[in-house]
Write a structure and sequence with these properties.
403 residues, 2 domains, 7-stranded parallel beta sheet, alpha/beta, 6-stranded parallel beta sheet, single chain, Rossmann fold, 16 helices
Amino acid sequence: MRAGIIGHLLSFEPTYRQAGVSRYTEALVRELPALAPDDEFVVFSGPAPVPPDRGFDPRTEWVHARMPTGKPVARIGWEQTVGTTVARRHGLDLIHAPVNVTPIISGVPSVVTIHDLAFHLYPEQYPGAKQRYLRLMTRLSVRRAARVIAVSNATRDDVIRLYGADPARVVTIPNGVSDDFRPLPADDVARFKREQHLPERFILFVGTLQPRKNVETLLKAYARVAAESGWPLIIAGAPGWDYETIFTAARELGLTGTDGPERVRFVGFVPAETLPLWYNAAEMLVYPALYEGFGLPLLEAMACGTPVIGANVSSLPEVVGEAGLLVPPKDVDALGRAMLTLMRMDEMRADLRERGLRRAAEFSWRRTAEETLAIYRDALSHSGERTQSFRNPREQAQTRRPR
């Protein structure tokens, strides 16, 4: 098999683009060659060279675009012009689009990964042209793909419900977590706290600052318990859409030090290489997002042994399982009580730490790649039979990971 992976959203620069879908794509590019040494993998990426220290398999073939595909217009142009001919020119048997949209005409079977349908469910958070493009092209990609990968059962349900996709062609393959996310030596964590001028105990949020992350509810809930706990809240994340309302809420709640003690600290974007230290340094991660296709911060925090509080909606219960506290995302009182309970109960935090470590051990990028490779082979074996029934590998071993 000679498979092409569209990697234009791969980013090796320490910016917010390095998160989420970039980590997913990089993990597949890293893991697949080791799993299938007799197969060939071609990665189509932007014009920037691949840093030699990333440790990719030397057998992987990289094809760099001449267009600046890090920019949306150029990337869309590549996908639906150049991308339609790469299978023939590079002798591909299959194309995988790891982020929602695949070349509509490719000449070979395609696999597309859907991370979430936020642009469909929260259209007001996307510019008009971008939202319309994503809705149209994701729908067409789902319709034409031989197989569709969803990163959670919640996303799979959305794809089937909103796009009328054949359930037999949509399979759930959860994200993984890197070995970098693990409990770190106490001395390393203490040194990091000194360098970042962090308090001994604090609550952490990690995520892009935008309405869907529900940071304003977090601030309101924290404001009700801040004085009693004394633990600051640190919010890590790059500004996204409509982020100004978050800073306004913090000021109006008296949390930023303007009219009293500074209880909330915004630290901006956190590079991927320091994320494990942030999780290890925190007493808990609170992530009350209104909607997530997966919820990677919760998994990463659990892998570091950090207790988590999440929302009980969309994909987040699938990730957390019984290893954290889940509350209705808009219930300020419930979220405040959950934080206060964890602050007061050392035994509960210790219990959730162990539960979280066990839960996170069920997820790995190697496993994600193994199941993705199986989808490639299935798509090829049933090319031309788009409605062929496919038994999800998750359903073959339901006891391995609770739904």
